[in-house]
């Protein structure tokens, strides 16, 4: 004699809202929604400055106590030349001016790669000026041959 099959209800009972279709708990709301990428001009400028400063501080102990700040524009500028940074050795401070660094690029050199090179170059030149060296001397493998 055959055993009767167990009967299943026509409609499955609904799982809780936190369960996925495989019976696992869903992720918490802390990880959703994903954060937007850092792709704004201010964010990328800060990121490029930060990575260049971190590299310089690891190579030059003289730069470790120096505060490196970012400002949009200089308060007072020479009408003939717009400064890209300000060095204040008494206060141990370097101020980088974002707008002149980013916006005064040559025509045709205003893409993301050239902008990054300009930002990192300004950081290196300002740091070199602060410690009294030439920018190419900032490389610890530089030789005076």
From TrEMBL:
Biased composition (Basic residues): 16-25
Protein origin, superkingdom: Bacteria
Region: Disordered, residue numbers: 1-33
The protein, known as: Metallopeptidase family protein
């Amino acid at each position: 004699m055959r055993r009767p099959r167990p009967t299943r209800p026509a409609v499955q009972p609904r799982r809780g809202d936190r369960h996925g279709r495989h019976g696992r708990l869903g992720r918490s709301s802390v990880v959703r929604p994903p954060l937007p990428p850092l792709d704004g001009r201010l964010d990328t400028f800060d990121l490029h400055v930060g990575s260049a400063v971190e590299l310089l501080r690891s190579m030059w102990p003289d730069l470790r106590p120096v505060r490196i700040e970012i400002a949009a524009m200089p308060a007072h500028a020479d009408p003939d030349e717009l400064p890209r940074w300000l060095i204040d050795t008494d206060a141990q401070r370097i101020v980088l001016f974002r707008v002149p660094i980013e916006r005064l690029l040559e025509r045709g050199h205003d893409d993301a790669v050239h902008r990054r090179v300009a930002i990192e170059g300004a950081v290196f030149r300002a740091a070199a000026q602060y410690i009294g060296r030439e920018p190419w001397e900032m490389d610890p493998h530089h030789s005076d041959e």
